[in-house]
Amino acid sequence: MQYAVYIATGFIGMFQKGGTTFVSLVTGIIPLLIVLMTAVNALVRFIGPERVDKVAIVSSRNVFLRYLILPFLAVFFLTNPMAYTMGRFLPEKQKPAFYDSAVSFVHPILGLFPHANPGEYFVWAGIAAGITKLNLNVGDLAVRYFLVGLLVIFLRGLLTERITAVMWARRSVAPVETWSELAETAVANEVVADSFTGPTIPRENGVIEGTHRPTTPAEDADMRQTQRSSFQTGEEM
């Protein structure tokens, strides 16, 4: 009976602790997030979305600005997940690197600007809880977290841009037949050419007779291409 009491007490205590945490959030971080989000939205309105876009365009021209300033501006002004739309000003080859930088910065920025990613504030709160319990300054941790985040997103941007360039170069090269594939095709053509010619069949006029023989792989490919082209032409008509 005593064990049942312990289980029931622990079960309801878990929810009581959750309620206490919820009250602390309602009276603490939630008002702060609302005020910050309102202030940033007002700032964007005062500055103008067009000017923010112009700054983003200028920032995309330099490698340091592209993977340091542009991700910060995107996450700070547009917040998560709208921050990734700022990559529309970049060439296709640089968009993966920008996304990698921006998505890696949505947590380091929380210590100083929690409005940027309020849905994942628990990541920063979990880290700050241990520092607070040790009676250490959370502000120092927030600044260090922010600076290290800038360094990390810059390195990730450079690395991802390099990987994207290598993969892009491989994609642009047309596939080339290997020596073994060419040899197999040549042998197949010779076998078909030297094989039994097939039964004799009359032609359309009924006078000249011809022979039917198997087609070579190359002829099969040509026939399929011709049929495909005829089918597509018929659909267009």
Give structural notes.
It contains 9 helices and 2 strands. It is mainly α and 237 residues long. It folds into 2 domains: 158 residues, no CATH class; 56 residues, no CATH class. The chain has a two-stranded antiparallel ribbon with strand order 1-2. A hairpin with a 6-residue loop joins strand 1 and strand 2.
Q: What is the helix tally?
A: 9
**Overall radius of gyration:** 33 Å
Distance from first to last alpha carbon: 83 Å
Major sheet = 2 strands, antiparallel
* Secondary-structure element pattern, one letter each: HHHHHHHHEEH
Overall form:
extended
Summarize the structure.
The chain has 237 residues and is mainly alpha-helical. The protein is built from nine helices and two strands. It folds into two domains: 15-172, no CATH class; 181-236, no CATH class.
List the topology elements.
Layout: H1 2-27, H2 29-47, H3 49-59, H4 63-78, H5 95-103, H6 121-133, H7 138-172, H8 179-194, E1 200-202, E2 209-211, H9 217-236
Antiparallel strand pairs: 1-2
What are the defining features of this structure?
70% helix, 9 helices, two-stranded antiparallel ribbon, 237 residues, extended
